[in-house]
Amino acid sequence: MNKKMFMQRTGAAVAAITMSCTPFALAEGEWVDLLEDGLSAWQDSSGWTMGDEVILNPANEKELTVSKPGKTIAVVETKSRAAYLLTKQRHGDIEATIEFMVSKGSNSGIYFMGRYEIQVFDSFGKTEVTHSDCGGIYQRWGKNKDNGQPPRVNASTAPGTWQKLEVTFRAPRFDENGKKTENAKFIKVVHNGQLIHENAEVTGPTRAAMKGSEPEEAMGPIRIQGDHGPVAYRIIKIKHVELN
User: Fold this and answer.
1) What is the pLDDT of residues 24-72, one digit of tens each?
2) Which residues form a coiled coil (predicted)?
3) H or E stretch including 57?
């Protein structure tokens, strides 16, 4: 093998290895079901189990239980310190459809780009809601954090029922020097068929965000909170879009 051919093959091999180890971006217009192959789309799934049917634990409504084994629903059954699920894919502007279930008093969250949280919480029956209730945009990171944004209405259903979030999210924008020129924005968030946010700007990462103290970026992963109580997700679908 001559030197030129050796260098070409070596370069190709290095590129292939690099690509296999680097988080990849979502292709535009392609709906991706992040639970289609169990938990293979996620980096660390310790503390999570899979099933095909999930119900409230009949002996303890503060817990969930897998009533039918399988591979379609991601579940944290008890109040354990399960890992935050983190996608291998990175995204910018996306649409997302998410179906979830919480037990009584439970708490989770969905972080877009790993930084901007829509709260998942048992808020059933509450007449006054805040940023920390289900569908709320959580308060900002840091000492000068604002108070977040509560949902317009409380659309929560009872613990043990399946709920749905439909989200259109626009990533922050940056100039050629990496300076942020526009904040991230939740263009539209619908909870169980009711509009709860529209054109809601997020001035920075929310509390408990990944890399919350570091400069924001143009792309990032989906991050699902798993350490604050029992929760189940049966649909997490995302699609890359261009929101100019």
Assistant:
1) 455 667 899 999 999 999 999 999 999 999 999 999 999 999 999 999 9
2) none
3) strand 49-57
In tens, the pLDDT along 168-211 reads 999 999 999 999 999 999 999 999 999 999 999 999 999 889 88
Contact of 154 with 89, CB cutoff 8 Å: no
**221 vs 213: CA distance, rounded Å:** 17
Give all domains of the chain, ordered by start, each with its CATH number. 25-240 (2.60.120.560)
CA 159, 165, 171: angle at the middle one, nearest 5?
Answer: 140
Token duo for residue 193 = 């068929």
pLDDT at 25: 54
Torsion on CA atoms 152, 149, 95, 83, rounded to nearest 10: -120
Contact predicate 138/117, CB 8 Å = yes
Q: Is 181 left (phi over 0), alpha (psi -120 to 50) or beta?
A: alpha
Residues whose CB falls within 8 Å of the CB of residue 132, separated by 6 or more in sequence, listed in order: 119, 121, 138, 139, 148
> How far are the Cα atoms of 73, 98, 166, 173, 218 from residue 188, in angstroms, in the given order?
25, 14, 8, 18, 19
| DSSP 3-state of 13 | helix
